[in-house]
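Thread: Newbie trying to understand structure tokens

Hi all, I'm a second-year student working on a class project, and my supervisor (Dr. K.) asked me to get a predicted structure for one chain before our next meeting. I've only ever worked with sequences, so writing a 3D structure as a token string is new to me. If someone could post the tokens and maybe explain what I'm looking at, I'd be very grateful. Here's the chain:
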Amino acid sequence: MTAPAHIEIRGVTHAYRTESGPLPVLNDLNIFLPEGGFTAVVGPSGCGKSTLTRLIAGLMRPDSGTVWIGPDEIKAPRKTVGMAFQNPVLLEWRTILANVMLPLEIVAPGMARKDREARARELLAEVGLEGFEDKRPSELSGGMRQRASLCRALVHRPEVLILDEPFGALDAFTREDLWQTMHALRREEKFTCLLITHDLRESVFLADEIVVLSGRPAHAQYVMPSALPRDRTLDSLFTEQATEMLAVLRHQIEIAQGRSAPEEVPA
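---
Reply by user tm_fold:
Sure, no problem. This is what the structure looks like when written as tokens:
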């Protein structure tokens, strides 16, 4: 099994090339994600959150600065990174079991089929999809498809799991159910996680630490360690600690959007 690794963003600056000139997105960004930790990144729309995921995944290189996973500088895609997105992008011509097995066919082609299948079935059972292995994606609800997507991201036991708004398109009840699924997966699987989200409640419920990015070009404006115990229930969101965290985060987002001054203190 691959062990989780820390992630370090060191002085990363990046801009996109457009017809009207460079569009700065990240500016001297410094973030450290501890080994085995769960870090949420929030910030205004368009501040570079998804760009950050592509840099960590090795899908693009920064203009300056470096990205590290463990002792290795990231210069290309890595087999030990798993990713899940808002759209599950499951292949309709494959069963749910075959969809989940797909990463193993790519990164571990020498692995016996029975072992690939056993690993996929293990994960599907962990997220409550036992009995749905032979269904097609169109036969499942949105929440069930997203559960299968999480299994696919974890099936090859990645050291790093990147979640780019995976629950954003779901209804509130399904989203909260999947938050609890993520907690269960975290107990069973070992990985370092980066969650990109616009949902502050989601960040408070899931993360050990929350990073607020500034407006574009983004830097790490504020870092908040969680005040909640690691073993949480949805009731934890109604505690005084969670309420205080949400108030601070909302204020930080207002600062990032230019709607509030840094010296103002939320009521």
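A couple of things are worth pointing out once you decode it. The domain at 1-76+200-267 is CATH 3.40.50.300 (Rossmann fold). The chain has a mean pLDDT of 91. Feel free to ask follow-ups in this thread.
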